Amino acid sequence: MSHTLLFQYCQKIVVFRDNDSEVLLCKRKWEQDYDGIYSFIWGKMETTDENIIEGIRREKNEEVGESVQLEILSDYHPVTFFRKKDGNSMILPHYYAKYIGGEIMLNDEYSDYKRVKVHELDAFEPKIHTIPEMVDKLLHLKHRLWETAIYIKI
Predict the structure, then answer these.
(1) Domains of the chain
(2) 131 touches 137 (CB < 8 A)
(3) How does pLDDT run across 10-29, given as a tens digit for each residue?
(4) 117: how many CB neighbours lie within 10 A of its CB?
(5) Residue 138: helix, strand or coil by DSSP?
(6) pTM for this one?
(7) Quick one: DSSP state of residue 118?
(8) 11 and 59 in contact (C-beta within 8 Å)?
């Protein structure tokens, strides 16, 4: 069997707050490609997830805690592709999420988190280089869909 068709589907949850003026970034630790780098919260889809929303909810609970409440724009999301150092390919959909409340409790995959002003993202380091672009795309998408957007609480 060829392994050229294998890839990982990995949802990125882009958490905005304060009327979309801030975004949550978490500092990865012990991660092969991005150790010590700030990123969005994210996780891979698992075969036990009943659907994509349940996978996003599970990852949110694992990454930042069950008490954190978000509303996500589920139907529309920009997607990127990434090839990891180990050769695995990843499909990375980025989901807009609005922070509703709850205390952030990072799991052991992260060492720190920051709420970064959107207008300061270009200068903020160390971060994954696609963060400003994905934030811009999500804000543009949200603005275009504001009348018809359906948000799901997770």
Answers:
(1) 8-153 (3.90.79.10)
(2) no
(3) 788 999 999 999 999 999 98
(4) 12
(5) helix
(6) 0.87
(7) G
(8) yes
- Pairwise CA distance, residues 99 & 72, whole Å: 9
Residue entry with tokens 């811009």:
136
In the DSSP assignment, the letter for residue 128 is -
* 57-to-64, 74, 82 alpha-carbon distances in Å: 11, 12, 23
SS3 136: helix
**Amino acid making up residue 46:** E
- The helix/strand/coil state of 20 is coil
What's the CA gap between 117 and 20, in Å, rounded? 9
What is the Cα–Cα distance from 47 to 6, expressed in whole angstroms? 14
Q: Would you say 113 and 34 are in contact if contact means Cβ atoms under 8 Å apart?
A: no
HSE toward the beta carbon, residue 40, CA cutoff 13 A: 29
Q: For 114-130, write each residue's pLDDT tens digit.
A: 999 999 999 999 999 99
**φ and ψ at residue 49, rounded to 5 degrees:** -70, 130
